[in-house]
Amino acid sequence: MLQLYTARNSICTQKVFLTLHEKKLAWDQKIIDLFKNEQYDPEYLKLNPKGVVPTLVHEGESIVESTLICEYLDEAFPGPALQAATPAGRAHMRLWSKFIDEGIFEATREISFSAMFRERMKNMTEEQRQTRFRNVGDPERRARYISTYEEGVESVYVFQGIASYEKMFKAMESDLADGRTWICGERFTLGDINLMPFVARLEYLDLLSVWIADRPRVQAWWARAKARPSFVDAIAGKLTGDEMAAMKSHGGAIRERVAQRRAEYLAQLA
Question: What are the tens digits of pLDDT across the range 61-96?
Protein backbone atom coordinates (compact mmCIF):
# COMPACT_ATOMS: atom_id res chain seq x y z
CA MET A 1 0.00 0.00 0.00
CA LEU A 2 1.15 3.51 -0.78
CA GLN A 3 1.48 5.82 2.21
CA LEU A 4 1.51 9.56 1.63
CA TYR A 5 2.59 12.13 4.20
CA THR A 6 1.01 15.51 3.49
CA ALA A 7 -0.29 18.71 5.04
CA ARG A 8 -3.59 20.55 4.74
CA ASN A 9 -3.79 22.57 1.52
CA SER A 10 -0.22 21.66 0.50
CA ILE A 11 0.27 22.66 -3.14
CA CYS A 12 3.08 20.19 -3.75
CA THR A 13 0.97 17.36 -2.37
CA GLN A 14 -1.86 18.38 -4.68
CA LYS A 15 0.40 17.45 -7.60
CA VAL A 16 0.71 13.97 -6.12
CA PHE A 17 -3.04 13.74 -5.45
CA LEU A 18 -3.71 14.58 -9.11
CA THR A 19 -1.31 11.87 -10.25
CA LEU A 20 -2.80 9.29 -7.87
CA HIS A 21 -6.30 10.06 -9.12
CA GLU A 22 -5.30 10.00 -12.79
CA LYS A 23 -3.59 6.62 -12.23
CA LYS A 24 -6.58 5.39 -10.17
CA LEU A 25 -4.38 4.34 -7.26
CA ALA A 26 -5.33 3.80 -3.63
CA TRP A 27 -3.25 5.17 -0.77
CA ASP A 28 -3.17 5.82 2.96
CA GLN A 29 -2.67 9.37 4.12
CA LYS A 30 -0.97 10.81 7.18
CA ILE A 31 -1.40 14.52 7.89
CA ILE A 32 1.64 16.48 9.07
CA ASP A 33 0.67 19.67 10.92
CA LEU A 34 3.20 22.24 9.75
CA PHE A 35 2.06 24.86 12.26
CA LYS A 36 2.81 22.41 15.08
CA ASN A 37 6.24 21.73 13.50
CA GLU A 38 5.45 18.02 13.11
CA GLN A 39 7.62 18.05 9.97
CA TYR A 40 10.65 18.29 12.27
CA ASP A 41 9.78 15.24 14.31
CA PRO A 42 12.87 12.95 14.33
CA GLU A 43 10.87 10.01 12.99
CA TYR A 44 9.56 12.05 10.06
CA LEU A 45 13.02 13.45 9.34
CA LYS A 46 14.20 9.88 8.83
CA LEU A 47 11.77 9.70 5.90
CA ASN A 48 12.34 13.23 4.61
CA PRO A 49 15.54 14.90 5.90
CA LYS A 50 14.43 18.29 4.55
CA GLY A 51 11.40 18.25 6.84
CA VAL A 52 8.92 19.09 4.08
CA VAL A 53 5.86 17.45 2.52
CA PRO A 54 4.94 15.39 0.64
CA THR A 55 6.72 12.11 1.24
CA LEU A 56 5.65 8.84 -0.39
CA VAL A 57 6.49 5.50 1.18
CA HIS A 58 6.15 2.42 -1.01
CA GLU A 59 7.47 -1.06 -0.26
CA GLY A 60 9.74 0.31 2.43
CA GLU A 61 11.25 2.98 0.22
CA SER A 62 10.82 6.69 0.90
CA ILE A 63 10.42 8.91 -2.18
CA VAL A 64 10.64 12.68 -1.73
CA GLU A 65 10.20 15.77 -3.92
CA SER A 66 6.74 16.01 -5.48
CA THR A 67 7.94 16.09 -9.10
CA LEU A 68 9.94 12.91 -8.55
CA ILE A 69 7.06 11.27 -6.70
CA CYS A 70 4.74 11.93 -9.65
CA GLU A 71 7.22 10.45 -12.13
CA TYR A 72 7.74 7.47 -9.83
CA LEU A 73 4.00 6.77 -9.67
CA ASP A 74 3.66 7.00 -13.44
CA GLU A 75 6.56 4.61 -14.03
CA ALA A 76 5.82 2.16 -11.20
CA PHE A 77 2.13 1.57 -11.85
CA PRO A 78 -0.07 0.75 -14.85
CA GLY A 79 -2.81 3.02 -16.04
CA PRO A 80 -2.97 6.09 -18.27
CA ALA A 81 0.52 7.25 -19.25
CA LEU A 82 1.20 10.68 -17.83
CA GLN A 83 4.47 11.38 -19.60
CA ALA A 84 4.87 12.56 -23.16
CA ALA A 85 5.20 9.81 -25.78
CA THR A 86 8.53 10.90 -27.32
CA PRO A 87 11.92 11.80 -25.85
CA ALA A 88 11.56 15.35 -27.15
CA GLY A 89 8.09 15.57 -25.65
CA ARG A 90 9.34 14.30 -22.29
CA ALA A 91 12.17 16.84 -22.34
CA HIS A 92 9.61 19.60 -22.96
CA MET A 93 7.43 18.24 -20.17
CA ARG A 94 10.37 18.31 -17.76
CA LEU A 95 11.15 21.89 -18.72
CA TRP A 96 7.72 22.81 -17.35
CA SER A 97 8.49 20.81 -14.22
CA LYS A 98 11.72 22.77 -13.81
CA PHE A 99 9.80 26.02 -14.35
CA ILE A 100 7.66 25.11 -11.36
CA ASP A 101 10.40 23.71 -9.12
CA GLU A 102 12.93 26.47 -9.77
CA GLY A 103 10.71 29.54 -9.59
CA ILE A 104 6.96 29.11 -9.33
CA PHE A 105 7.05 27.05 -6.15
CA GLU A 106 8.84 29.84 -4.31
CA ALA A 107 6.67 32.47 -6.02
CA THR A 108 3.51 30.78 -4.78
CA ARG A 109 4.90 30.31 -1.30
CA GLU A 110 5.81 33.98 -0.99
CA ILE A 111 2.54 35.27 -2.47
CA SER A 112 0.47 32.89 -0.32
CA PHE A 113 2.50 33.81 2.74
CA SER A 114 2.05 37.54 2.15
CA ALA A 115 -1.69 37.05 1.71
CA MET A 116 -2.59 34.51 4.40
CA PHE A 117 0.07 32.91 6.56
CA ARG A 118 1.56 36.28 7.46
CA GLU A 119 -1.71 37.10 9.20
CA ARG A 120 -1.60 33.83 11.11
CA MET A 121 1.93 34.53 12.27
CA LYS A 122 0.91 38.00 13.47
CA ASN A 123 -1.35 36.23 15.96
CA MET A 124 1.53 34.16 17.35
CA THR A 125 3.66 35.23 20.27
CA GLU A 126 7.11 36.56 19.44
CA GLU A 127 8.63 33.41 20.92
CA GLN A 128 6.44 31.22 18.68
CA ARG A 129 7.42 33.25 15.61
CA GLN A 130 11.11 33.07 16.37
CA THR A 131 10.86 29.33 17.01
CA ARG A 132 9.21 28.89 13.63
CA PHE A 133 11.91 30.95 11.91
CA ARG A 134 14.67 29.00 13.68
CA ASN A 135 13.14 25.71 12.60
CA VAL A 136 13.58 26.62 8.94
CA GLY A 137 16.84 24.85 8.27
CA ASP A 138 17.78 26.57 5.02
CA PRO A 139 19.18 30.12 5.56
CA GLU A 140 17.84 31.43 2.25
CA ARG A 141 14.37 30.09 2.94
CA ARG A 142 14.51 31.61 6.43
CA ALA A 143 15.42 34.99 4.92
CA ARG A 144 12.44 34.71 2.57
CA TYR A 145 10.06 33.93 5.43
CA ILE A 146 11.32 36.81 7.55
CA SER A 147 11.22 39.31 4.68
CA THR A 148 7.72 38.29 3.62
CA TYR A 149 6.48 38.37 7.20
CA GLU A 150 7.92 41.81 7.87
CA GLU A 151 7.16 43.46 4.52
CA GLY A 152 4.27 41.54 3.01
CA VAL A 153 3.63 42.35 -0.66
CA GLU A 154 6.43 44.94 -0.54
CA SER A 155 9.03 42.20 -0.02
CA VAL A 156 11.52 41.83 -2.86
CA TYR A 157 10.76 38.11 -2.81
CA VAL A 158 7.07 38.73 -3.50
CA PHE A 159 8.07 41.02 -6.37
CA GLN A 160 10.28 38.24 -7.76
CA GLY A 161 7.34 35.86 -7.44
CA ILE A 162 5.06 38.20 -9.36
CA ALA A 163 7.70 38.38 -12.11
CA SER A 164 8.06 34.57 -12.15
CA TYR A 165 4.34 34.13 -12.70
CA GLU A 166 4.41 36.71 -15.49
CA LYS A 167 7.15 34.74 -17.26
CA MET A 168 5.28 31.47 -16.78
CA PHE A 169 1.95 32.67 -18.14
CA LYS A 170 3.66 34.37 -21.06
CA ALA A 171 5.40 31.07 -21.92
CA MET A 172 2.15 29.14 -21.54
CA GLU A 173 0.28 31.47 -23.88
CA SER A 174 3.08 31.06 -26.43
CA ASP A 175 3.19 27.25 -26.22
CA LEU A 176 -0.60 26.98 -26.51
CA ALA A 177 -0.67 29.26 -29.56
CA ASP A 178 -0.48 26.33 -31.99
CA GLY A 179 -3.89 25.07 -30.82
CA ARG A 180 -2.69 22.17 -28.68
CA THR A 181 -5.06 20.92 -26.01
CA TRP A 182 -2.50 20.49 -23.23
CA ILE A 183 0.80 22.10 -22.41
CA CYS A 184 2.86 19.40 -24.15
CA GLY A 185 0.45 18.53 -26.96
CA GLU A 186 -2.71 16.45 -27.16
CA ARG A 187 -1.81 14.14 -24.28
CA PHE A 188 -2.52 15.29 -20.72
CA THR A 189 0.81 14.92 -18.91
CA LEU A 190 2.70 15.59 -15.71
CA GLY A 191 3.50 18.97 -17.26
CA ASP A 192 -0.16 19.94 -16.82
CA ILE A 193 -0.34 18.30 -13.41
CA ASN A 194 2.67 20.26 -12.19
CA LEU A 195 1.04 23.51 -13.27
CA MET A 196 -2.52 22.96 -12.04
CA PRO A 197 -2.17 23.37 -8.24
CA PHE A 198 -0.19 26.58 -8.62
CA VAL A 199 -2.71 28.13 -11.00
CA ALA A 200 -5.48 26.96 -8.67
CA ARG A 201 -3.87 28.69 -5.69
CA LEU A 202 -3.89 32.01 -7.56
CA GLU A 203 -7.54 31.51 -8.47
CA TYR A 204 -8.52 30.73 -4.89
CA LEU A 205 -6.62 33.82 -3.74
CA ASP A 206 -8.65 35.86 -6.27
CA LEU A 207 -5.40 36.84 -8.01
CA LEU A 208 -5.35 34.73 -11.18
CA SER A 209 -6.94 37.29 -13.48
CA VAL A 210 -4.12 39.72 -12.68
CA TRP A 211 -1.99 37.59 -15.00
CA ILE A 212 -4.37 35.88 -17.43
CA ALA A 213 -7.16 38.39 -18.11
CA ASP A 214 -5.57 39.11 -21.50
CA ARG A 215 -4.37 35.56 -22.19
CA PRO A 216 -7.28 33.62 -23.77
CA ARG A 217 -5.29 30.45 -24.48
CA VAL A 218 -4.26 30.09 -20.86
CA GLN A 219 -7.88 30.73 -19.85
CA ALA A 220 -9.06 27.94 -22.16
CA TRP A 221 -6.38 25.55 -20.86
CA TRP A 222 -7.42 26.34 -17.30
CA ALA A 223 -11.09 25.67 -18.06
CA ARG A 224 -10.15 22.25 -19.46
CA ALA A 225 -7.91 21.48 -16.49
CA LYS A 226 -10.59 22.36 -13.93
CA ALA A 227 -13.10 20.15 -15.74
CA ARG A 228 -11.05 17.00 -15.18
CA PRO A 229 -12.49 14.74 -12.45
CA SER A 230 -9.03 14.47 -10.91
CA PHE A 231 -9.00 18.23 -10.28
CA VAL A 232 -12.28 18.06 -8.42
CA ASP A 233 -11.16 15.05 -6.39
CA ALA A 234 -7.58 16.13 -5.72
CA ILE A 235 -7.88 19.88 -5.19
CA ALA A 236 -11.32 21.50 -5.18
CA GLY A 237 -13.03 18.67 -3.31
CA LYS A 238 -10.44 18.62 -0.52
CA LEU A 239 -10.95 22.27 0.44
CA THR A 240 -13.57 23.33 2.94
CA GLY A 241 -15.87 26.28 2.39
CA ASP A 242 -14.09 28.15 5.18
CA GLU A 243 -10.69 27.56 3.55
CA MET A 244 -11.97 28.80 0.20
CA ALA A 245 -13.52 31.88 1.77
CA ALA A 246 -10.36 32.66 3.74
CA MET A 247 -8.13 32.43 0.67
CA LYS A 248 -10.43 34.67 -1.37
CA SER A 249 -10.66 37.22 1.43
CA HIS A 250 -6.93 37.38 2.17
CA GLY A 251 -5.93 37.34 -1.48
CA GLY A 252 -8.47 39.99 -2.36
CA ALA A 253 -6.94 42.27 0.27
CA ILE A 254 -3.62 42.36 -1.61
CA ARG A 255 -4.98 42.07 -5.15
CA GLU A 256 -4.69 45.75 -6.07
CA ARG A 257 -1.11 45.99 -4.85
CA VAL A 258 -0.13 42.75 -6.62
CA ALA A 259 -1.53 44.19 -9.87
CA GLN A 260 0.44 47.38 -9.29
CA ARG A 261 3.66 45.48 -8.70
CA ARG A 262 3.09 43.43 -11.86
CA ALA A 263 2.69 46.71 -13.74
CA GLU A 264 5.95 47.91 -12.21
CA TYR A 265 7.69 44.78 -13.47
CA LEU A 266 6.26 45.20 -16.98
CA ALA A 267 7.36 48.83 -16.98
CA GLN A 268 10.91 47.74 -16.19
CA LEU A 269 10.84 45.44 -19.22
CA ALA A 270 9.65 48.26 -21.43
Answer: 999 999 999 999 999 999 899 999 899 999 999 999
Q: What are phi and psi of 102, to 5 degrees?
A: -105, 10
3-class DSSP assignment, residue 25: coil
**pLDDT tens readout for residues 134-185:** 776 677 777 887 888 888 899 999 999 999 999 999 999 999 999 999 999 9
* 81 inside domain: no
Domain span at residue 29 reads 2-76
Q: What backbone phi and psi angles, to 5 degrees, belong to 182?
A: -120, 175
In contact, 184 and 92? CB cutoff 8 Å? yes
pLDDT at 39: 87
CB-facing half-sphere around the CA of 130: CA atoms within 13 A: 3
Residue-wise pLDDT tens digits, 199-223: 999 999 999 999 999 999 999 999 9
Q: Do the Cβ atoms of 234 and 18 come closer than 8 Å? A: yes
Domain boundary among 48, 76, 104: 76
- Split into its structural domains, the chain has a count of 2
Within the chain, strands assigned E span 2-6, 27-31, 55-58, 61-64
